[in-house]
Amino acid sequence: MVSNVDKDLKRFLDIIKGKIRKDLGDLIINDELMGKKGKEIVRIPLPGIDIPRFIYGQQEDQEGLGQGEGKEGDPIAPGDQEGEADGQKAGEGAGQHNVEVEVTIEELAQIMQEELELPNIKPKGKKRIYKEFDKFASLRKVGPDALLRFQPSYLEALKRTIASGEYNEEDPEIILTKEDMRFRSWKTKEIPESDAVIFYIMDVSGSMSDEHKKIARKISFWTDVWLRSQYKGLESIYLMHDFDAYRVDRKTFFTSSTSGGTKIWSGYDLANRIINQEFNPSEWNIYIFQYSDGENWGDNGDEFNILEKEILPKINLMCYAQIDIPWWQTHPYYSRNPQQLSLDDYEVKGPYLEELESFAELSKYADKIVTSQLLGEEDIYPTIKDFLGTGK
Questions:
Q1: What is the tens place of the pLDDT at every residue in 112-168?
Q2: 217 and 187 within one domain
Q3: Are residues 233 and 381 in the same domain?
Q4: Which domain holds residue 349?
Q5: Which of 242, 238, 287, 289 is nearest to 265 (CA)?
Q6: What is the DSSP letter of 37?
Q7: Strands 369-374 vs 317-323: parallel, antiparallel or unpaired
Q8: Torsion sign over Cα 206, 210, 215, 220
Q9: Alpha helices (H) along the chain
């Protein structure tokens, strides 16, 4: 039977998950959450959650706290006058109640799936074998007392007693010996799982500001959360480029910048060489997430040629996010006078996004290309839904 405490706990957890679901759009752009990601647990601050508390009942003939007469507002003890303590007056009005709840990465991925209506990914490629422990899936003759199973042990003693001719139907007496005892154990189970690799490619030329990279980082964080719920093995490869491309670690990827020009082809070329050397497409599910402001040197012929002939045939999905933050949003004058300019005045797509969309319309791999234009953090939520909603 499920106790009332268990029911109350489940109800409270359901309330928390419902709150997370409701506030998911705000959580996705929350800078705090990005820094709180642990190995398995994310701590999420949720406003407006009331912690359950005990409320003591009152008898009809009682007033105030404890025994005796009392009126609302009367001090409880000497010195408790009008909310004063240590010479300071109490503030007025109710405070904001923030509760920091712990959610596992798996639970967060499930909430994402439900709220964003994400389909499960259908992996391609060969399976690799992983070994996992299934606890208490078998019995063994040795083990700690805490894992002793009475029923199997009793059955072993009964079979031994009958086989030895010592069993008396009129006066049955079963004595367990050390040889009869059976303990819960586990057995190793081999489970086939698919592997995946994500290539993050970012333009780090001088026009890509810290605000551009912040948006790219948030998209990458939630991409990782989702794909790790779909794949047992997931590797992340970080490539940055200006005119040339480099393989770097995650920290360098999101903090470095250069003053050079931009050649997107160099990022594609490096990704293709790494795929050929390290990630056989028949064994790996391959994803590319690319970030740029849309400025690219040249006519894009090399870019689309390597996409069509080399990269797209090998990968599951390519997602291109063009981050077109209006220049005035980071300008001091705009922060003081935000009413002067509007995003409605800024909807022109950068040149690379337009040309990539035109290329995709004619490509036989059009279903593997997803694009998005982001004018600010408010576009992160729909972009993630577009990128991860393909089921590829």
A1: 777 777 777 766 655 554 555 555 667 878 777 777 888 888 888 888 888 888 888
A2: no
A3: yes
A4: 194-388
A5: 242
A6: B
A7: parallel
A8: positive
A9: 4-22, 24-28, 31-34, 105-116, 150-163, 210-230, 250-255, 264-278, 301-306, 332-336, 351-362, 380-388
CA distances from 143 to 5, 30, 84, 330 (A): 32, 48, 62, 65
Tokens of 301: 């012929």
DSSP 218-229: HHHHHHHHHHHH
Q: Does residue 382 share a domain with residue 250?
A: yes
If one counts the domains in the chain, the total is 3
CA proximity to 260, closest of 215, 330, 203, 212: 203
Shared domain check, 364 and 240: yes
Instruction: Kindly report the pTM of this predicted structure.
Output: 0.64
Residue 65's alpha-carbon distances to 54, 77, 269, 324, in angstroms, are 15, 11, 76, 61
d(CA 24, CA 32): 14
CA angle 49, 101, 40 (to 5 degrees): 160
Q: Are residues 310 and 381 in the same domain?
A: yes
- CATH number for 269: 3.40.50.410
